[in-house]
Design goal:
Belongs to the HIBADH-related family. This protein is α/β, with parallel strands linked by helices. Helices cover about 50% and strands about 15% of the residues. The protein folds into two domains: about 160 residues, NAD(P)-binding Rossmann-like Domain (Rossmann fold); about 120 residues, N-(1-d-carboxylethyl)-l-norvaline Dehydrogenase, domain 2.
């Protein structure tokens, strides 16, 4: 059996390194693929086969993808010289990229028409978890195929869930992301109000981290707000695209979600306010500017 992995970026690197351990245990033959030669060095050092050409992967039983966006996934899979032009019925593509629900279902339908299985398996977790092999992986597609590849997925994640038919993996991921986005918007709007009216930022932050209004978002991001740390690899602009993705589904099915719609407006204000390239909690700076305050710990400059 041959397994290939295309896309060795921030998340794909650790995932591919963990998956490649299967070759070291003689479970399968492994090939790492990326256009960036530097990304291949760690694999070459371990004696793992590498390539910069995706067509070298087309004889694989299973081809894993971890790519930046929907356009690139479509080009790699459905493009004029993409994978699907070379694959035979019975081969499988597993996509870890975060793309839209509608995009995933469209790609899956095209693959299925050619006898190729396509599973959308977006991931959740930071770069450290990808290196540790402790990601959450949410999968949509053929359940029988999922059961076959689960031992491989278990090398990359500790929470590996089958969510349903094609698109269900992406739908799960975007719902999770949007729930996080809503939580970030809530404290970003409310903390500046508290500080404007005389509350101490650190004490208010302690309450939002520990009391009934706490969330994963407040626990991880309120400390960064207080320290003035808004740098992160995943920008507010990309977070907004998650909401655009689910909004396509809501429009198609005529489903009103006022809380999500309000959150999108908060993100739009932050994007227009110059916070596009910072992490999502940078939206608090829009409300700080609006109210003329800063939500920072004592001594911050």
């Amino acid at each position: 059996m041959k397994v290939s992995f295309i896309g060795l970026g921030v998340m794909g690197m650790g995932m591919a390194l963990n998956l490649a351990k299967g070759e070291q245990k003689n479970e399968f033959e492994f090939l790492a693929c990326d256009a960036n030669l530097e990304a291949l060095e760690q694999f070459k050092e371990k004696g793992i086969n590498t390539t910069t050409d995706i067509t070298d992967t087309v004889d694989s039983d299973y081809i894993y993808l971890c790519l930046p966006n929907l356009d690139i996934v479509k080009e790699v899979v459905l493009g004029k010289s993409g994978l699907l032009t070379h694959l035979n019925p019975g081969q499988t593509i597993i996509d870890f990229s975060t793309i839209s629900y509608l995009g995933a279902t469209e790609i899956a339908e095209t693959c299925k028409a050619n006898g190729v299985e396509f599973l959308d398996c977006p991931i959740s977790g930071q770069q450290a978890k990808s290196m540790e092999g402790t990601l959450s992986i949410m999968c949509g597609g053929n359940e029988e195929v999922f059961n076959k590849i689960k031992p491989m997925l278990d090398k990359m994640g500790t929470q590996v869930l089958y969510m349903g038919e094609n698109g269900c993996g992406q739908l799960t991921k975007v719902i999770n992301n949007c729930a996080l986005n809503i939580c970030v918007a809530s404290f970003s709007e409310l903390m500046p109000v508290g500080v404007k009216l005389g509350l101490d930022p650190e004490k208010l932050g302690d309450v939002l981290i520990t009391a009934t209004g706490s969330s994963f978002a407040s626990k991880t991001l309120v400390p960064k707000v207080l320290e003035g740390d808004f740098e992160h690899g995943f920008s507010l602009d990309k977070a907004y695209k998650d909401m655009e993705s689910i909004n396509e589904v809501l429009v198609k099915h005529e489903i009103p979600l006022p809380t999500l719609s309000g959150t999108m407006q908060s993100y739009q204000l932050a994007l227009q306010g110059g916070q596009r390239d910072y992490y999502k909690h940078a939206m608090i700076r829009f409300y700080e500017d609006l109210l003329g305050v800063q939500v920072r710990k004592e001594g911050f400059e």
